[in-house]
Amino acid sequence: MKKNYLIIEDIKEGIRRISLNRPKKRNALSNPLRKELFEALEESDRDTTVKVIILCGAGTCFSSGYDLSSDVASDLPYHTGKSDGFWPRHVVEGAFRIWDLSTPVIAQVHGYCLAGGTELATACDLVYVAEDAEVGYPVVRSMSPPDNQFFPWLLGMRNAMEMMLTGDSITGREAVKKGFANNCFKASVLEKEVLLIAKKVAKVPPELQAMNKRAVHRQMEAMGMRAGIRAGTEIQALAMHSKATRDHLKELSEGLTKALTKRDSKFGDYRTSKKKK
């Protein structure tokens, strides 16, 4: 599987690792990258030798989010109706495509895991993070709620509300405590620890793992998770018609870096933080 934006490796028997490979762009999720990613995931799911998939990012981070410098309406990786609010519906459809794979998918998260990066990670079955990872959805400060509104389901009402009303990020340790991730490790050993977990997952017969995944998902669906997340796309679509969002989109079109710096400077975090990235 030759790809332009991914590195695909069979690192151990039954274990395939897919790395997002736009390190200079902090693995921003352009549609060409997403197209390759969904193709690779589906090809891996059809490959009977693959028992577990690890999804990670090359370079300094997992993913900084969607590529706001690109045209998200063009070259979609799979069809979505283009009526009003198509983008959040498209994103949610993609999340459930990953959810519905028979093969378990593990997210290995280090550095930035922001906006669309968080949505990609939460679509995976297991999530392991570096202790100093930075997980957040700063888009709520200037544009809209998430396309995939997973926060209430994973973090609970109070934690979700805090992240939605502030746009603040959380560390890897906080991500585990609040329910975003399964566990966290020092960045230096994250890859090694995730591989150990993947080896355990790969020991179970694939046909049983498919049922094990489905057993958990069916319970979440019975509680309304799939319907709730789909319903959230309409709120996101409505927010895109607000004056604040229209003003921010204009700023983005005039200069991406300047607009994002303006958004976060009053909070002193993300790209405006004094911490070295």
Please sum up the structure shown.
The protein contains eleven helices and nine strands. The chain is α/β, with parallel strands linked by helices and 277 residues long. The strands form two sheets. Strands 1-2-3-4-6-9 form a six-stranded mixed β-sheet, sandwiched between helices.
3D structure, described in words:
The chain has helices at 31-46, 86-99, 116-122, 151-155, 157-166, 172-178, 190-202, 206-222, 225-239, 243-254, 256-265; strands spanning 6-12, 15-20, 52-57, 105-109, 112-114, 126-130, 134-136, 169-171, 183-185. With 277 residues, it is an alpha/beta fold. Helix 2 links the parallel strand 3 and strand 4 (105-109). Helix 2 (86-99) runs antiparallel to helix 9 (225-239) and helix 10 (243-254) packs across helix 11.
Comma- or semicolon-separated keywords:
277 residues, 45% helix, alpha/beta, three-stranded mixed β-sheet
What average pLDDT do the residues reach?
A: 95
Helix content: 40-55%
Beta-strand segment tally: 9
Number of helices: 11
Please give the largest β-sheet: 6 strands, mixed
What is the end-to-end distance?
32 Å
Set out the fold topology.
Layout: E1 6-12, E2 15-20, H1 31-46, E3 52-57, H2 86-99, E4 105-109, E5 112-114, H3 116-122, E6 126-130, E7 134-136, H4 151-155, H5 157-166, E8 169-171, H6 172-178, E9 183-185, H7 190-202, H8 206-222, H9 225-239, H10 243-254, H11 256-265
Parallel strand pairs: 2-3, 3-4, 4-6, 5-7, 6-9
Antiparallel strand pairs: 1-2, 7-8
Helix pairs in contact: 2-9, 10-11
